[in-house]
Design goal:
Blueprint (H helix, E strand, L loop, with lengths): L1 H15 L4 E5 L20 H11 L1 H9 L3 E8 L5 E8 L4 H14 L15
Antiparallel strand pairs: 1-3, 2-3
Helix pairs in contact: 1-3
Amino acid sequence: MFEAQRKVRADVGEAINGFDILLTPTLPCTALPHSTRTTLSEGVTIDQFRDQYMSLYQFQGVFNITGQPSVSLPLFHDGEGLPVGIQIVARFGDEATLVRVARDLEQALPWSARRPPVFAAPR
C-alpha cells in the first residue's frame, strides 16, 4: 500500500510540477442538501454509501493521498443558493502560492457572508 501511495505521490507531483496551481471542482456536482446521503437512508447498504461517497469526493481524494497543499472555496452558488466550490491545488511545498491565490479569489468573489437556505433532515 505504501509503495502505491508513493507512486501516486510521485506521478501526481510530476504532472503538476510545470504549473503554479491546479483548479478542480470541489465536487462533481453542486452541493447536496443536508441528509441527501447518509448511512441512515432507508435501503442504502454500507457498500452503496461507500461507493456514493467515493464518487462524490473523487477530486479531493487524490490530494489527500499525495499530501499536496490544497484548499476548497465555495466561490459560486447554484439556483437554489447551494454552494459550488472550486479546489485549488499547489505544488509540494508551495503553500504560499496556494494561500495567495485563495486570498485573491476570496477578495474578488467574497463568499464568507453568503448563507445558503437551511435544509433539515426529515424525522
